[in-house]
Design brief:
33% helix; Muramoyl-pentapeptide Carboxypeptidase, domain 1; TIM Barrel; globular; 2 domains; 8-stranded mixed β-barrel
């Protein structure tokens, strides 16, 4: 069995596809552009995504980012576009790339773009609990510090004629831009955008469904602080303050919430949002787990501070 999965992505620029034929030809996953900016939606998204799902492929969608607009408004645009089609096993992607004239990045620093991306991802994770959310982005964006850590990466880089088939992409070394691990590599745009995933089809389906091994870990020397003793929802302890700060930094608690030693309702709600975005840390059978444990604490800190 192959250690890789093959995929395609399309937008309004592509005609309707024979997705069942693509499936017979060995395609495992396919993504369609859903939206762009605050208001724009791809006119062929519904046609594409329905065909992808009907063919039994792992489905997904992407949103083209305008970091100099509101991240929450853009997330709402995307969520509205994909909500009728998203379900378990659906993959969501933020397409974070600069227009050639820079109009979608104009006036924003690298830190502001990174914060925009983290906010967009957190909003989509909250809207679709348990579903994977990743970022499609370039080596330049990663090197410039515009891409948050701890998020699956779909990476475009085209070697040219030396790698223009799936077989050649599989034989090529796995890209590692700025030392980051990539989950998907888009290696050509001819005749369609084509990508490989670094998991066999069965493992990719498990991963897309929110289970299976994480493949989104960026190499890092960051180590989360030890889990505080006595940190629990029914106790008032100074330990709640660093928890609140981490929740804010990771985008799960509004920055306007006043810090308090009390592990109160707002902290509990933020922890529940974190758990619903990262269900492996949530108590089994719960949809509102408000008690963070050592493994969840480490994951939250990495998301918040491993920049």
């Amino acid at each position: 069995m192959s250690s890789y999965s093959h995929g395609l992505d399309v937008s309004a620029y592509q005609a309707a596809q024979d997705w069942k034929k693509h499936a017979r030809d060995g395609i495992t996953f396919a993504f369609a552009k859903a939206s762009e900016g605050r208001n724009s939606r791809d006119p062929k998204f519904a046609t594409h995504v329905r065909g992808i799902k009907a063919a039994g492929l792992i489905p997904g969608a992407y949103h083209f980012a305008w970091p100099n607009q509101s991240a929450t408004a853009e997330a709402a645009n995307y969520i509205g576009a994909v909500k009728p089609y998203a379900g378990p096993g659906f993959l969501h992607w933020l397409d974070l790339e600069r227009y050639s004239d820079g109009r979608n990045y104009h006036g924003r620093t690298a830190a502001q773009i990174r914060a925009y991306a983290a906010t967009w991802v957190a909003a989509v994770e909250h809207a679709f609990p348990g579903q994977r959310v990743g970022i499609y982005t370039s080596a330049d964006d990663i090197a410039a510090g515009r891409v948050p850590n701890g998020i699956p990466l779909w990476y475009p880089a085209y070697p040219g004629k030396s790698v223009d088939t799936y077989a050649e992409a599989e034989r090529h070394s796995r890209p590692s831009p700025s030392g980051r691990t990539v989950t998907l590599w888009q290696f050509t745009s001819t005749p369609l955008d084509r990508s490989i995933a670094y998991m066999p089809p069965t493992a990719l389906r498990e991963w897309a469904g929110g289970t299976g091994k994480d493949d989104d870990q960026a190499p890092s020397k960051y180590t989360a602080p030890a889990f505080p003793k006595g940190l629990a929802p029914d106790k008032s302890t100074p330990s709640a303050v660093p928890l609140q700060r981490a929740l804010k930094a990771a985008g799960y608690m509004p920055k306007s919430v006043k810090e308090s030693p009390s592990y109160g309702p707002q902290t509990q709600a933020a922890v529940a949002r974190f758990h619903n975005a990262h269900t492996r840390y949530r108590a089994k059978g719960s949809t509102h787990d408000v008690a963070i444990g050592p493994k969840g604490w480490a994951k939250l800190h990495r998301l918040a501070y491993d920049k």
